[in-house]
Amino acid sequence: xxxxxxxxxxxxxxxxxxxxxxxxxxxxxxxxxxxxxxxxxxxxxxxxxxxxxxxxxxxxxxxxxxxxxxxxxxxxxxxxxxxxxxxxxxxxxxxxxxxxxxxxxxxxxxxxxxxxxxxxxxxxxxxxxxxxxxxxxxxxxxxxxxxxxxxxxxxxxxxxxxxxxxxxxxxxxxxxxxxxxxx
Length: 183
Prior knowledge:
The chain has 183 residues and is mainly beta. It folds into two domains: 2-49, no CATH class; 81-173, Immunoglobulins (Immunoglobulin-like), CATH 2.60.40. 10% of the residues lie in helices and 36% in strands. The chain contains one helix and 13 strands; from the N terminus they run αβββββββββββββ. The strands form three sheets. Strands 5, 7, 8, 11, 12 and 13 form a six-stranded mixed sheet that branches. The protein has a four-stranded antiparallel sheet with strand order 4-6-10-9, with no helix packed on it. A three-stranded antiparallel sheet has the order 2-1-3, with helices on one face. A hairpin with a 2-residue loop joins β9 (127-129) and β10. The radius of gyration is 31 Å and the shape is elongated. The model is unreliable at 62-74 (pLDDT under 50).
């Protein structure tokens, strides 16, 4: 029960602070049963409440704002294009010995505070690397890759067209220098 009263008191103090920020007077009265009441109307034994200035801040800018250097008043996407350049769409990666380097172009260049991420079959994955993003090759078969550009809040600003690749691994028995198996 006391938590309910405490919650109510906190809400009332918030309302008091909000109202007081507009220049209105707030009054506090303690009733016979000990209940504290806040009001904008003075009553018999009401005491004025002094509330400090409330904190406020401006909302962050919208994600679709023009890129730096864009003409004033022009709105639209921040990034004009994101395109995967390697591996090629429809290509096959044979016997990868590690991660596949996914290279891409971005126009305009990546802004400070923004980042890129790799989607592998629609799920975030991969690691940043010099020259692109690394896609793990632990799974054979067909996969689609996409590159996304995100702002500091994690909002997706742009996404590349998907690139479909096939990861192919020869069975160990078919590696050069090994004799074929007789089944």
